[in-house]
Specification:
The chain is built from 22 helices and 14 strands. The protein is mainly alpha-helical and 547 residues long. It has a 3-stranded antiparallel sheet. Strands 13-12-14 form a 3-stranded mixed sheet, with no helix packed on it. A hairpin with a 2-residue loop joins β3 (103-105) and β4. α1 (3-10) packs antiparallel against α5, α8 (234-244) packs across α9 (260-270) and α14 packs antiparallel against α15 (392-400). The longest helix has 18 residues, at 528-545. The chain binds glutamic acid. Glutamic acid binds next to β10.
Length: 547
């Protein structure tokens, strides 16, 4: 029996050939300098920050070269699949504003190279496997899980390389007659790739990050099609899909690096051009003296839901990842404060190979900086986009009087050195709640030096009845606080106070603090002059009377 006849026996209904598919998906009308990249997550229900780094690299390479960025759903591992996982992936891409040019979502296919969901591409994979069997480069393997387990244990005991190769590969040299017989008898089987590699020979492979790496050739007859669902394994789907979809650059996790020799051999077996690879860096977390891999079980920030639920602007997350990817990014950013990150002259060789420290404090700083540069309308729009989804009560309060809210958001904003107090949108409520009557129920006045309530009330009543005038400009306002201080026996000038502290009950800062805490209950707030103007006299008096 020939290999071709065996292939026909296994796939009698597959009539299309590789050439048919290559015709169906013609060469993309792109030059060599326009890259085609894909984000290819498995729908496990989690999108990890490491996935976002990959998507960022994909998006960056495609967009900065005027190429194509597409999304592929790698759902061949049905055991790990979770409902709504695809929604989560779309949500993350939407959050990051990485809009794929080609994708498939809720039954709709956008793009000419689909389906973009692997479980819908079974026939395509089968056509490729059928030809591989016909070429004598793939074969059915009937070994059971138990047999393979015994094999693994023997290999371990004998300190042999693990894998299905050489004398261990029991089904590799079966005759086609025996194979046919066993298939006809209904025995279950997987399909394995027939490797011609020899681990004593080495291959050179040019990784975009790591440069030239040498590996022993692959000699492992890897499973390329599973027995239960007849779906391909990752390795095989990678070869077929990235060939047909014409991916130029594959960005994937470092865990795939050891599989490169297998992938090289499979691409060669078909005579296909192999894409270039970026094996992206591991993200590490500092814990005491050690650095360990960021983990979705231990670290909430490992998952993208963390950033979305806290309301980090995606620009901040992207910016922090760019600083991780290329160490000269920050310097470039300092020199190009308003440029899009897509303009950065990115160099894959500068991606760290050993793992990069991921630091939430740094993200906060980047984010505070980004938010501080937004004008009040941008802050408002972003904030309510967040509250609409995550805090509807606060949302209603913010929108009750939009101009009032914008005035609050504008305190110490739209100026040369804006205040940097919000790292994410969920921070805002904690910073401005006291500006809203509905939320202002102080249970802890943060009095500082002056704590006597009679003194406090007297300071406030004197100030608001005799001094405060809503139409005063800031200088007049401050002079009046000084005057008040002096009239009550507090130093109006810090220098004078420091020269002779015993001559005073305290100083103007103590008086300002009393006014601040009386109105907000907080000892630290943004500009008090602005707070008073925005609250207005009626609300001020209500708060003073409630002291
Ligand atoms: N589905 C694979 C994963 O999630 C993708 C690897 C790749 O991008 O090739 O690891």
């Amino acid at each position: 029996m020939t290999d071709k006849e065996l292939a026909e026996l296994i796939f009698p209904n597959i009539k299309k050939t590789i050439a048919d598919y290559e015709k169906k998906y013609p060469k993309r009308a792109l030059t060599d300098n326009q890259y085609v990249t894909r984000f290819a997550p498995s729908p496990t229900g989690f999108v990890h920050i490491g996935n976002l780094i990959q998507a960022l690299l994909d998006y960056f390479l495609a967009k900065s070269s005027d190429g194509v960025f597409y999304l592929r759903n790698e759902d061949t591992d049905t055991k790990r699949e979770v409902d709504s996982a695809v929604d989560k992936i779309m949500e993350v891409l939407d959050y990051a504003d990485f809009k794929p040019d080609e994708y498939e979502y809720r039954g709709k296919i956008i793009g000419n190279y689909g389906p973009y969901v692997q479980s819908e591409r079974k026939e395509i994979y089968h056509a490729f496997i059928k030809e591989l069997i016909s070429m004598g480069r793939a074969y059915p393997c009937f070994c059971s899980a138990e047999e393979l387990d015994i094999m693994r244990k023997k290999q371990e005991a004998k300190k042999c390389m693990p894998g299905y190769y050489g004398a261990w590969a029991k089904c590799r040299d079966l005759s086609n007659e025996e194979r046919a017989e066993r298939i006809k008898n209904g025995e279950s089987f997987v399909i394995r790739f027939k490797s011609m590699g020899n681990p004593n020979r080495r291959i050179k492979y040019d990784d975009l990050v790591m440069g030239i790496i040498e590996f022993p050739e692959n000699n492992n007859d890897m499973v390329i099609m599973k027995s239960n669902d007849l779906l391909p394994t990752y390795h095989f789907a990678h070869v077929v899909d990235d060939h047909l979809m014409q991916t130029t650059h594959v960005v994937r996790g470092q865990e795939w690096l050891p599989s490169v020799p297998l992938h090289v051999e499979m691409f060669e077996a078909f005579g296909f051009t192999q894409p270039k690879y970026i094996h992206s860096c591991l993200l590490l977390k500092q814990e005491g003296n050690i650095r360990r891999k960021i983990s979705k079980r231990k670290d909430p920030e490992a998952l993208m839901t963390y950033y979305i639920e806290k309301g980090y602007p995606s620009e901040a997350v992207i910016e922090s990842l760019m600083t991780i990817l290329n160490s000269n990014y920050e310097e470039w950013r300092d020199n190009n404060p308003n440029a899009s990150y897509l303009e950065f002259p990115f160099d894959p060789k500068k991606i760290g190979t050993t793992g990069a420290l991921y630091d939430l404090e740094k993200l906060d700083n980047i984010s505070k900086n980004i938010i501080s540069k937004m004008n009040k309308d941008e802050v408002f729009d972003n904030l309510v986009k967040y509250t609409e989804e995550f805090d509807t009560d606060f949302d209603a309060i913010l929108k009750k009087d939009v101009e009032y809210t914008k005035a609050i958001l504008n305190i110490e904003r739209e100026q040369a050195k804006p205040r940097k107090d919000f790292a994410c949108w969920s921070n805002v409520k904690n910073s401005i709640w006291y500006m809203y009557e509905e939320l202002y129920h102080p249970d802890n006045y943060e009095w500082m030096k002056i704590t006597d309530m009679d003194e406090i009330k007297s300071i406030c009543n004197t100030y608001f009845n005799d001094y405060y005038n809503e139409s005063d400009d800031k200088d007049t306002w401050f002079n009046k606080v000084k005057e008040l201080s002096e009239s009550l026996g507090y130093a109006g000038n810090m220098k004078e106070y420091k020269a002779n502290p015993d001559a005073y009950k305290g100083n103007v800062a103590d008086i300002s603090t009393v006014l601040r805490v009386s109105l907000t209950s907080k000892s630290q707030t943004p500009d008090l002059y602005e707070i008073m103007r925005i609250l207005g006299k009626d609300e001020i008096m209500r708060r003073i009377n409630n002291l």
